[in-house]
Amino acid sequence: MHCATLKTSPFHGRFPSQLTFPNYKNWTQFKPRNKTHKQSSLNSPKHVRISDSNLHSSPSSLVQNTHPPNPNSLLFCSSVTAKKLRFLVSEFKSLPKPIDRVKRLLHYAALLPVFDDSAQVESNRVRGCTTQVWLESRMDSEGLMRFGAYSDSEITKGFCSCLIWVLDGASPEEVAAVAADDLVDLNVGISGRAHSRVNTWHNVLMGMQKRTRDLVEERERVPRSENFPAMVVAVDGQSANTTYAETKERLCSPGLAH
Amino acid sequence: MMMTTAAEGVVVKFPSFKITNTNPTLTNRRFATVRFGSRRLSSSSSISVVSSVSSSIVNEDEPKLGPVSLGHSTRPHFPILHQEVNGSKLVYLDNAATSQKPTAVLKALQNYYEAYNSNVHRGIHFLSVKATNEYELARKKVATFINASESSEIVFTRNATEAINLVAYSWGLSNLTPEDEVILTIAEHHSAIVPWQVVAQKTGAILKYVSLTDDEVPDTVKLREMLSKKTKIVVIHHVSNMLASVLPIGEIMGWAHDVGAKVLVDACQSVPHMVVDVQSLNADFLVASSHKVGLLPYILGFCHAYYELLSVMPPFLGGGEMISDVFLDHSTYAEPPSRFEAGTPAIGEAIGLGAAIDYLSGIGMQKIHDYEVELSNYLYESLLSVPNIRIYGPKPSRTVGRAALCSFNVEDIHPTDIATFLDQQHGVAIRSGHHCAQPLHRYLGVNASARASLHFYNTKEDVDDFVRALKDTVSFFSSFK
Lengths: 258, 481
Ligand SMILES: Cc1ncc(COP(=O)(O)O)c(C=O)c1O
What we know:
The complex is a heterodimer. Chain A has helices at residues 35-39, 52-55, 80-93, 98-110, 154-167, 172-177, 200-220, 244-252; strands at residues 133-139, 145-151.
């Protein structure tokens, strides 16, 4: 499968010691980000890989997960975002004791960049969590996604901190390519797979993806009909036989964000 | 929007509706002052909880909580309780959300599916007749359990939420007109608020909310003052799922009926824990959810209403079972309760509920209640030893009874963090969040709370384990500060 290309400066040095990826230096060897990528976005056929099947999976137990790997998973890509995600997953996998996972999250919570009070507005709220979460999303001048988050719960802050570490500075395609299933092994309390209204990982990720789609769309909003064929190809290989507007509706509908 | 909402004495007083970026605010008013002999929860109430509150708040040597307690003797009947969660013995304290099911109920369900699973009221074959008999027997058992005079006064619904919607849509839409008033308390469950908001929007009726006293119980004096000829229905809980307070339903009923208003009692948190007698309460509508009530699987609730009232109410949902005759352009409706039970009902669940009622009656609801009062007081007093804790609702006393649950916050620790750590590190299951009572949480100046709720199969040791685990949780998070 084709993965989103890499960007040159993946790592923002402010991140936690535990997350300092040992081969971090190698990252700079990755190919510079492909220019064309910036303009592509949701209408870049092979990058966006959200399908219902990724989101509607059955709850798994707290037992370390043994689900069959999803071949489309971002985890199998070679992008920096994918590497970070893999690193995070293996880090949490290496902590079999729940208390250690909680401790790690609290550590990351402490490292969550300061979130501006003024961004704690209703429109930034992530719905559906048992804690209050605010998520600020913007697209920088290079077309990369920038995220900030805050929660009144320390554990939730830890979740947000991890997600931001992975996705802040990622391209919209990479953000869209993370599946809830990829987070299964990060479970603390509620598994990443649990399709639950209290699953913070899931809700924050869905919030990031929804806002990314909105921003991409905003960037691309040109006075043209939404009736051109959808260029989004889902995992199920569904071809562009629906219109862009329909596909957008499907991808952005609240049902997906449960 | 047509709906007007008057929340007298509620909104203005508490400017805490804005979103805060801090942990749940803990007011300094840690515990409400106790008002002995409070008129509001006077012993004239017809509810047994008030009069039977233990005189000794906590007595560690209380024999009722000892090794031969009701909790100890019934625990073996609940297979689910005997397991490890995250490496610790499970301590299940989320009973207000749903209760666990005894073997007797599981067996009844299994027997139904193995021996006579069939649709009811439809077939003339053996299995269908047997299923119909058992289903109707379950209805009789529910009627007896809450002392309804007729089993036809029991309407089976999907859950309490649907039962409330049934009343709101069927009775509410055909009886409310603009300017009519519906009185609720700010402590109602969302499922008792939202259907009335919808109906108020459609009819132009006005919703009025009663706030709390300083003791953190719904203010029945205010409620009484709010009642007028305009009041058409009072929608109130019996036992609060967050405050653990118990309302004097008998008194409220008298006041409401004096002005000609109907009363809908949300008995979700009382029917599972105490004797509820619909005839002595005299409620027009009483709803409950069987998964809490009857130690039963989900998908069943019920609504009790007097037959005369039911018989003049239009159907809520249309379909099979609820009709008498169907023509192409109109239908005639069956008599209650069938009129309100469109489609194939949750047959197995009803039969399981019947078995649950047999099980509970075998123990005796009064005995269950007395034991829970002891355990509840023990929980409350034990929790007070946790540093910086704020427990919501009234302080228990000789005159003020609390249901067997405590909602609380610990200063500077989010309740979800507490619940997560309790689960992960100690195998203790409690609830965190707003417990479907957001208006109440806003009123109290918090976004969320933690809640431990007991049932009769819990023991003093469960409470001890929980409180020990909670203290460990608090020190864990404090060490991270
Ligand atoms: C007081 C109260 N009312 C209503 C309900 C709604 O019950 P159900 O979800 O079974 O419809 C609940 C359940 O939490 C409750 O505690």
